Amino acid sequence: MSYSFFVSDFKFCYFFFFFKQKTAYEISACLVGSEMCIRDRLTIAYESVDASPAPAANPGDRIDAMFEAAEERHRAARRVVSMLLRALVYLGALLTTAVLLFLVGYILVNGVPYLTPSLFEWEYNSTNVSLMPALVNTLLMAALSLLMAVPVGVGSAIYLVEYAPRGSRFVAVVRTTAETLQGIPSIIYGLFGMLFFVTALHWNLSLLAGACTLAIMVLPVVMRTTEEALLAVPDAYREGGFGLGAGRLRTVFRCVLPSAVPGILGGVILALGRCVGEVAALIFTAGSIAQIPNFAGEGAMAVFDSARTLAVHMYALASEGLHVNETYATAVVLLVMVVLLNLLATFAAKKMNKGGTYD
């Protein structure tokens, strides 16, 4: 502001001395003009001094605004993706349920009307095509297979989890082998059983040969599910047992296994379902004779008799093409049997686990 006053006064003096020889009228006009010029310049100077400068934009505010805008866009994108994934999950669940209901309904509609008393006669012939011998053989085959596979599978899993050094190469090799065996087609197991049990050991087509083949098939399933169930048990259970002075074996059977029973029985249920529904392996090892092994007359040697299971019975009737309706009826019985066995195993797991879980 002082600089503006200095410039204005200098110009006023310049004009005054320049026009001192002029007339009074001319000097008055010049002064009036100078006064107006000075007033205008003072006004501009005061306005320039009094006017507050515009606040400078904070770079941090701009960055925050950019982040907020980007977060809003990402939030909208996440909402869209979440809606799509939820829709896909619901669609998958709906399709799975629809397929299951369709299969079960189709089997029931086509099979229930043909569930006649002759289908449940004790002896099979070409007239009644009874499924009772196949039903009994299925239960015997599943029982023998699980009797051989479950102790070996559970024991192997206990050793791998509780006794073998964690992270050892041996454990990794065993796990890889078990996972590989789970993916081998059943026809390969059937060929192996035929070459080894039927031919090499001279067991012929028999109940025992088929049961041993099925035991080898389901052994990796039982072992891997038991191993995962044992790994899911918290280490605090083991530490508590050791802290109370219990040995490793007592800790495993008293603290760890009761908590892992549901997972172990889940693997047993899977193995049971595979035993009941297997066809290819049993055709090469157990045969297809529709008769119940004569345990009353032969005793334990009856396990070397040929036996036809329900799945093989269905295959035989369907391949002949003469008893298609009875095939659907057999499918209904097989479906009901699998459901009942699963319910029985689930009930047993709950009873065994009652009072054995700790939060």
Reconstruct the topology from this structure.
Layout: H1 2-18, H2 24-50, H3 59-111, H4 132-163, H5 169-182, H6 186-200, H7 207-231, H8 235-243, H9 248-277, H10 280-285, H11 295-298, H12 310-320, H13 324-353
What are the key terms here?
359 residues; mainly alpha; single chain
Describe this structure in words.
The structure is a single chain. The protein has helices spanning 2-18, 24-50, 59-111, 132-163, 169-182, 186-200, 207-231, 235-243, 248-277, 280-285, 295-298, 310-320, 324-353. With 359 residues, the chain is mainly α. Helix 3 packs across helix 13, helix 4 (132-163) packs across helix 12 and helix 8 (235-243) packs antiparallel against helix 9 (248-277). The longest helix has 53 residues, at 59-111. The chain is globular and about 95 Å long. The protein starts with a helix and ends in a 6-residue tail after the last helix. 27% of the residues are buried. Residues 1-54 have low confidence and may be disordered.
Q: Average pLDDT, to the nearest integer?
A: 81
Amount of beta strand: under 5%
Number of strands: 0
Oligomer, anyone? single chain
- Calculate Rg over CA atoms: 45 Å
Shape: globular
- Note the gap between the termini: 82 Å
Q: Which residues sit in consecutive blocks of at least 5 with pLDDT less than 50?
A: 1-54
Number of helices: 13
Return the structural class: mainly alpha
The helical percent reads over 70%
In short:
Helix content is 76%, strand content 0%.
